[in-house]
Amino acid sequence: MKEKIVGLLFTVLLSCCLMNVSDTLAATETTDVTVSLGNEGGELVFVPNHLEFVAGKKYKIKLDNPSPTKHYFTSKDFADASWTQKVEAAKVEVKGAIHELELKPSAEAEWVLVPMKPGTYELHCSIPGHAEAGMVGDIVILSE
Ligand SMILES: [Cu+2]
């Protein structure tokens, strides 16, 4: 009996989420958020290193790498908690699940997504030594 209630609740929650996605896509407004991977001085940082989103709203995360070395934007749990519409970089557009983005020096990419599940998620660069040197951050999804 208890399992049945939980199952029902999950179904209701899921359909709410799906409705949110279509509502959000119908509304074309997108909030731009810019994140730099590293800086010109070569410091191992994300700028900013704290990001906040509101669940159900659509965002375009503009990633750039002004540093002399390549970096990763890795946040698997945040990606899993979001619905990704697409990632655009150079002349390539990628659709579907994204967990990690690699940016070479002076590269840029745009990640269009709708954060869905409220929570706090860790962000790091997955190049050995970078997270340990401070290339970490956190991403918060606030409930609507
Ligand atoms: Cu890095």
Structure characterization notes:
This is EfeO-type cupredoxin-like domain-containing protein. Residues 1-26 form the signal peptide. Residues 14-130 form the EfeO-type cupredoxin-like domain. It comes from Crocosphaera subtropica (strain ATCC 51142 / BH68) (Cyanothece sp. (strain ATCC 51142)). GO terms for molecular function: metal ion binding. By secondary structure, the chain is an alpha+beta fold. It has a single domain, classed as Cupredoxins -  blue copper proteins (Immunoglobulin-like, Sandwich). The protein has two helices and eleven strands. The protein has helices at 2-26, 76-80; strands at 31-37, 46-47, 50-54, 59-64, 71-74, 82-89, 92-94, 100-103, 108-115, 119-124, 136-142. The strands form three sheets. A six-stranded mixed sheet has the order 2-1-4-9-6-7. A hairpin with a 2-residue loop joins strand 6 and strand 7 (92-94). The chain starts with a helix and ends with a strand. 25% of the residues are buried. The structure holds copper (II) ion. Copper (II) ion binds at residues 44, 71, 125, 127, 130, 135.
Sheet having the most strands:
6 strands, mixed
Q: What are the distinct ligands in this entry?
A: copper (II) ion
N-to-C order of helices and strands: HEEEEEHEEEEEE
* Tally of discrete structural domains: 1
Mean pLDDT: 88
The total beta strand count reads 11
CATH architecture: Sandwich
Low-confidence stretches: 8-12
The coarse overall form would be globular
What order do the strands of the largest sheet run in, or round the barrel if closed?
Answer: 2-1-4-9-6-7
Instruction: Report the end-to-end length measured between terminal Cα atoms.
Output: 31 Å
What is the beta-strand fraction?
35-45%
Structural class: alpha+beta
Q: What's the CATH first level?
A: Mainly Beta
Chain oligomer state: single chain
The value of Rg in angstroms is 17 Å
Percent of residues in helices? 10-25%
Count of helices? 2
Question: For this structure, what is the CATH homologous superfamily?
Answer: Cupredoxins -  blue copper proteins
CATH topology: Immunoglobulin-like
Signal peptide: 1-26
Keywords: Copper, Metal-binding, Signal
Domain EfeO-type cupredoxin-like: 14-130
GO molecular function, one term: metal ion binding
